[in-house]
Amino acid sequence: MTTHHHYREAIEMAGRGRGHRMMSFSVDAVGIRESLPPTIHQPTPVFPVMEQKPLPLTGGEEAEYLLALKQDCRGAMRSLPCFIQPAVAQRDVERYSDKYHISEQTDRLKDWVVDWKRFPRELRVHVRKAPGDGALLSCRDSGQQIQKKKKKVREEILLKLETLEKKEEQESSEGEGEMEKKQDEGAEAEEDYDEEEFEEETDYIMSYFENGEDFGGDSDDNMDEAIY
Amino acid sequence: MTAQEVRLCGLLMREHFGEVVEKVGTHLLRSGGQHLRAIVHETGVSADLVKKSLCVLMHHGACSFISGRKGPGSPPEYQASCDCILRILRYPRYIYTSKTLYGDTGELIVEELLQRGHMTMSGTVKTVADRLSQNMEDGQSVDYSEVSSVFSKLVETHFLQRCPPLDGAGMTASSTQAGPNPTAAASSSTLPNPESFSECYKVPHVTLVGRGKRQLATEEGEEQRSAKRAKMEPETHGDEGIYWQVNFTRFHQHFRDQVIISAVASKLDQTSSEIVRTILRMSEVTTSPTDSCTKPLSANEIFRSLPSSHNIPRQILDQYLTLLVDDPMEFVGKIGESGGGMFVLSILYFIAAAFLTSLPRSAPSISQPGTSHARVHRAGEVSLFGSRSARIFRLLLRKRHLEQKQVEDFAMIPAKEAKDMLYTLLSQNLVQLQEIPKTPDFAPSRTFYLYTANQLPTARMLLQKCYKTVSNLVERRLFETKENKRLLEKSQRIEAILASLQASGAEAEQLTEVEEMISAPEKQQLEVLKLHVNKLDSAENQVDETIFLLESYINSTC
What we know:
The structure holds two protein chains of two kinds.
Chain A: H1 3-18, H2 27-30, H3 61-78, H4 98-111, H5 121-173, H6 176-201, H7 204-209, H8 213-227
Chain B: H1 3-17, H2 19-31, E1 34-35, H3 36-43, H4 47-59, E2 63-66, E3 77-80, H5 82-86, H6 91-116, E4 119-120, H7 121-134, H8 144-156, E5 160-162, H9 170-178, H10 219-232, E6 243-246, H11 248-267, H12 270-283, E7 297-298, H13 299-305, H14 314-326, E8 332-336, E9 342-345, H15 347-362, H16 381-385, H17 387-399, E10 401-403, H18 404-411, H19 415-427, E11 432-437, E12 447-452, H20 455-483, H21 485-503, H22 508-515, H23 520-557
Antiparallel strand pairs in B: 1-3, 2-3, 4-6, 5-6, 7-9, 8-9, 10-12, 11-12
Helix pairs in contact in B: 1-2, 1-20, 2-4, 6-7, 6-8, 7-8, 11-12, 11-15, 15-17, 15-23, 17-19, 18-19, 20-23, 21-22
Family (chain B): Belongs to the eukaryotic RPC3/POLR3C RNA polymerase subunit family.
Protein name (chain B): DNA-directed RNA polymerase III subunit RPC3
Subcellular location (chain B): Nucleus
């Protein structure tokens, strides 16, 4: 609001009350004609110049203690369960640290004890589910995913074994030179395929969660290759 | 509530309950009573989060619900109240007051209750005892009974009260489900007055034996603790379902008394302020906070209650009382002669007087976020328009109506400047212009133009300005911290590393190496930031003092 605007409003309102006259009093009579600023057609500056210096803040022990209390209080309330974090948007990739964050959040929600006698039932039914469930669900989800992945891996291994068996059979029937070539090609193709699969899923967690048998086997294979 | 109030509430909720609650809360404040479905629909927040937010707000008393307004079984309507959220601004002052009155234990009790909204007595006592033990030397701890006794004292002096029982809450829900008593379902739980509940200040019998436990840092301890917690969970203390909250009105009454005492001390002298303090203390419990004056007290009673340390003889007391009665401000009134004279203390006059003396000083100027440096201050028309404008304002307050010529004469300010100042004050709505025509034609030459200062509207306007000021201060602080977020995070990380290194007994060389990860200019920047944030925070505290004064003036006059 401009000061000028205020002034004009005051005059207009006074005028309206009387009816036909625009101004109920002459500006000269009040003696403010010369101080009337020119009409302005733009908003006042966001940070007007301050003509007077502000009074300094009061200092002292009490003020400082109050300040410390204020900051402590704000910090403390952030860590209480009643500080609700917005749902974190699903990030680009699943991260190793994610599961630790999840456990942090569930811990906070577990502390949140509400006496449901004091709150409406409609909040209760779902909310009680929500804190437990929100966390549980995600856990369960990831658990299911992991299981699925495990299944997949197992299937892949079976498939691989089967193909290898077939190849062996082929080996025995076909000539050695040809077989070598073919086998190489096949192995290469398979390796490519595997890598692609792994890359698509970006699934280092999978290998982490596996009991290590696969890993050991792999490394053995590698060792063999290295030796030969 | 006004736009400024809602804005401030939003900012406070964001800082203390998170952004989700802010969204739900401001929506509720703007739209009034609403059903859950409507809130979920209109805010676009997921239903679970809305429910949690409502729980948080209700837990802090900032939100209430009416169930079954449109017949039994209809869903409850939620309503948020501005006042309770604005109280967050005053939390430091409540905590500080309880510290001065009841020491560290009282401080922690009030702090816990404020931060968590409401708690059972046993829960509070346990947490506070644990926290106190935490800060003590090895092997020492605080007994639960000590904390309990402080808690009881706080209740006795009405600083804490029971949360009023909510008949409408769970009971309604269960009855609607079972359906045996449909009339009970229409009961409401909107802001029941806690005082109307007879057991409001009754401390339940709590069986609590033990001492505060120190939190153990080792992992082993952690496991033990969680095991212990699991074991302790089903334990009952006999106060389940009885929740306590901070009685803001009582705290405000205390603040008000402090204002009165200091006003008397500065107007008369220390001794008279002690007498007034005694009168106030005597009437603390007998007078309700909304009364405009205390119950009559006889001079004999006052004399008996005076603390002996002040050593005020009876004669001097009588003289002081006459002095107080004769004072033009009419703080103390004499209403009878029995018992050496009956006296009442007019609280209303006091507040008005305190308000009026502070008014020319207290109007805060508005500091906006985004200025090159933190311009924070609590300042008045003194700073807005200069001390001479303040003189004119005070003059108008005392003389009520004055013509321009009279203003110039009384204030002893040259005509031209006085005109200018009056215009500025008029344009800011701090003074009003009243015209009184001698003839019905409103001819300017035959009309008086009287300037007048209108107290109540001015107080309301200043209050809104105060809210705006605080909002700007908060906004500015958030801006400052956001600008320096990276730096703050870095310093926090380094501090954490330092702490862990120190704990593991690292060498001094290593420590300095880590310390040097923050460069000198960065350090400087951090210090400047800290200075600004501190300044902004204490400015918020001090504007809140003004807000308190304005609020109590407005509340006591209407």
